[in-house]
Structure formats: structure tokens, C-alpha cells
């Protein structure tokens, strides 16, 4: 950049500003919408967190993030220009502040502080900017706080009085706080922080005002305390426990349960300390450390606050995860006691069935422990050691049966996901969705048991006849009149290869229900199909069952649609499935109406290009010798696609596809 700046001057800086603006914009969700809707001159980019100071500072993160690299480059480029001509500072500050992200305003303040003697009026303008001063954030920008601290005493009496008047009568809108007393407290807290910046330059009257606030909040703070972010200074509020870990560990289970039952925090504010969150976190650490002890006493935790039950179950789950990774040895695990607690919790959840207020307090408190029950069962059904014993099958199923009837997710909650169709994500973050996932894990757990006993083949061939409870739940939730949830339907798609393993006949007979082609149920099909494509591997036996579903999906490709420059995850996954099946010889190009031929006929240039690039990358990553039959098939595809492109009236519409063959050539093995 220094050499480029010598030639292009400010043009290089403008280019860098645009790059930094885009880096921040694209790193944030809904940034475009936020930028349009927010009327503030400064848009929050949370740069206080990822960049403590624009200058070199020990609390800055190492500049690995592209945003931080660009911040340093914009800073140094601006300084290089100013070293050649300092009179350009006002123009550079203006170019920076044309961008609304906070980081640009911080860079501008840094430059003003570095070159404050060049344009004193510019410095004063920034210090007495009321919009900047009355920022309602609890923390300050490093650059503004230091600029004000260093220069407040040099301001005229009138300018000082102007700033102090903003502190005296702040025009603040803490609209997120409805309680007027609490709002008044926030105003005093804000005043305390503002006076801290200039405390060394205060008159006797204002120093007394500052001392009163110090007494109110119980301590005197430094400037570094109100400049947040960076390395080594992150503090999470609300995680304090009323007792230390060692104090809790010294209690018997009975004493601990009694303490958890009776202890009350002094405030309902979740950020006040000590808190239930802090106490629960301490409990979770102890449980993970000594899972045998707390598993044995788990049943005694019935009736406690939902948070503590969640922490207990999470600690047990993490201990089992560690066991599977051989990080610690668990000799005994009292599943009877643990399942007793889980069953109590599942039964408690029943009263929320068909409730319209399950996401409101206090009902929502019980969503997390219900999901944690399912997480724990999922681990217990999978681990090789300390797994749930098979003779507890009825106990486990009773818990699952209850949670598969849980009202979470409601249709209202699903509407929140309708914009991105990410129903698989919703399923694993809701009680009923995770319960359906665990139903399949439960069925696979039963199958693994049968694999280890005499006459296993007979049991395995009986499929769901050996586990009718599973078939009943799966059938019930495939009925749209009973289960309209798209999140639940996504579970069937994700697990379809394993459902086919458990009972091929049931899977074959249920294809029309899982992937209905009736237009009325198109959303249900889409939820299941996208989940299948995105989360399932490519299995030959599954393809044999779903051959017509693949054909149907190909025919849904709209050849008249505008060429998309960005493919969806499902677009890419579908192309990967088809090319993998072709590689294995499950698809061919011999017939004009063949499935793969139709894909290349209907797909956009971008999608065709991705499919061929995937093959090229696969060739490059294949270390073993590739069978000649596979090479012949791939060479045939290469030949036919080139012929199609060169015989086309519009060869340019094949540019992306043909370019993808570069990966094939580069692989060196075809």
C-alpha cells in the first residue's frame, strides 16, 4: 500500500475505505436493512469489542480478521498522506465520516488526536458534538474518551460549561427501560462514566458531584474501566455465585438441594450478582467433575428451579461426552435416578400442551431443561460405555413419548423461520423437534442391541415390528392433520437413510408421505427434501428407494428462471448427490431422458458449473487409483458437455460450466 499511495494518493485511501465498509457490512446480519432503518449518524458495528483502540495497543486482538487488517491499513494510509500534506486532515476526516459505521468515526477521531495542532477548530468541533457525547452506551470509544480527557481543560470556559450542561440535564432516551426508577439509575450511571473521563479537570463543585456518584456506586473507576473490549478485559455480568465451588462441593446432596431450593437472589435483574445463573454454572462445573455422585442424587433435584435442573443435566451430558472422548473414566452412572428426574420433567411439561403462552414466563423456563433431557438421552443412547441399559427401554420411551407431544414449536414460532426456510435448525432448537430426532436414535439403539444377541438377523428383519412404539409415533407425525410442522417434517428427511435401514418396507411405503408430490403439501415436501439433501450422505440403497424423488426434484428446476449468481446450500447439495451417483455408476448419460441428462438440460450455467467443479475437486482429492470404468464415464461426460456447448447457438451461456473443467485438468488423473 505505501508504494500505491505514492502514485495514487487519496484514491488508494478511498478504495480502502470502501473495502472496510464492505467487510463490516457483509460481516453483519441484515446490515443493509439496519442501515436503511437507523436514523442515527453512527451505525453500531461493535468495533469496541473487536478493535479496542485504533492505535497500536496491547489490548487489541492480533490482526487476523480482515476488518482489523483493513482498519490498520486505512489508518496507516491516512497517516502517510497527512505526513506529506497535513492540511488534508479535514478532507480525510470528511471522507471517513461519510461512512456511518462506528469504526470510521473512530479512525477520524484518532487522526484528529494525532494531528490536533493542525486544525484546532476541527478538534473542538468533535469534542462539542452533542450527538457523540450523549451516546447512551455504557461504554466509550477509546478515541473519543482520550480526546476529551486530554483536551477538556484546554477548552474555553463556555465550551466546558456546554459539555457539563449535557451531563447536568442529559437528553437521553433509555427506551428499553420502562421502569422509571431504573431509568433514573441508568442516567446517574451514565453521568458517573462521563464525569470519570474529565475528573482530573473538574471544578470543586463538579468534583463533589463526581464524589457523590462514586459513593453511590461504591467505587472510583479509571478511564480503562469505561472503555470496553479488547483482549483480557472481557467480563460477563450475572455469573457470580453466592458460594464458591469448593463450598458447594463440600455439601452433601441433601444440603445442596436444600440450599438451591431456598436461596433467592437479591434482585430480579439477570445481570446483578450473585445470580441463579452464576449458581447454576457453578453446579454444572461440579457435576461435570463428579458425574457419578450427582447422577446418583439426580432424583432429589425434582421440584427445583428450572435453571438448576438444566445445569445438572448439562453437566451430566458433558461428562458423558468426555467419557466418549476418553478424557475421564466414569465407573458407575445411576441411570435409574437420572431417568426418574427426566421422567418427572417430561410429565411436568405435559401441562403446557396446547398452551398458547409456552414462550412466556414462567412456562418458557421449562423449555431449556426439556431440550437438555433430550440432549442427555441422545448421548446415553449412543456412548459405548456407561450407555443406558437396554432393560430401561420402557422408562426411556415414556420420556420420549411425552416430549414428542410437546407444543414447542408452535406454528407461530415456525413463522419466524419462514423467510429462510431453515426448518432443520428450528427442529434441533425445539422440544418436539429434538424429541423426534431422539426417537430415531432410540430406534437405532434398539437395533444395535439386537445386533449383539443370538438370532439377531431375525430381529433385524422384523424392523418396526420389534419396536411398534416407534412406528406409531412416526406414523402419527406424518399425518398433516395431526402434525403440520415443517420443522418436524425436516427430521424425516434428515434421517431417511437410517429409517430405511431400520425398516426398508416402512420407508418405501412412507416415501409418498415424507416427500408428498401433491401441490397442497409442497412445503412439507420441501422441508423434508432440503433436509435430506443437506444432511444425509449419498447411499446407493437410499437412491434405489428415492429414484423417482430425484427425478421429480430435477423436473422442478426452472429453465426459464433468471440465472442465479449465488447457489443455495440445497442447490449445491443436490448437484453433489447427482455427481456422486454418476461417479458410482448409479446414473448414466446414455438415454436423452436420463435423470442426469435432464439435470444438465434444465440447470443454470452456475449450477452446471458447480456440479462439474465438484467432480474436479473430488478427482484432485482422490489419492487412490481411480477405476478405469469410472474414468471412462467421466470422460464421456466431459465429451458430451463440450459437444453440447460448442453446438449451442449461445456458447457463452456455458462459460461457467466449461471453466469448471479446469479442475478436472488440474487434477492430473483423468
Number of helices: 36
Number of DSSP-assigned strands = 0
Q: Mean pLDDT across all residues, rounded?
A: 88
Instruction: Report the major sheet.
Output: none
Residue ranges: pLDDT <50 for 5 or more in a row? none
What is the helical fraction, as a range of percent?
Answer: 55-70%
Which structural class do the helices and strands define? mainly alpha
Strand content: under 5%
From the alpha-carbon coordinates, what is the Rg to the nearest angstrom? 32 Å
Whole-Å distance between the termini? Answer: 42 Å
Q: What is the general shape?
A: flat
Describe the fold and architecture.
It is a single chain. With 670 residues, the protein is mainly α. The chain has helices at residues 2-8, 10-26, 31-37, 47-50, 66-84, 89-97, 102-114, 120-127, 130-133, 142-151, 157-168, 180-197, 204-217, 245-249, 253-262, 276-289, 291-296, 306-324, 335-349, 367-380, 393-403, 411-415, 423-427, 431-451, 456-461, 468-476, 486-494, 496-502, 504-514, 522-535, 540-555, 569-583, 595-602, 605-621, 628-646, 655-667. Helix 18 (306-324) packs parallel to helix 20, helix 28 packs antiparallel against helix 29 (504-514) and helix 34 runs parallel beside helix 36. The longest helix is centred in the middle third of the chain and has 21 residues, at 431-451. The chain is flat, with a radius of gyration of 32 Å. The model has no long low-confidence stretch (mean pLDDT 88).
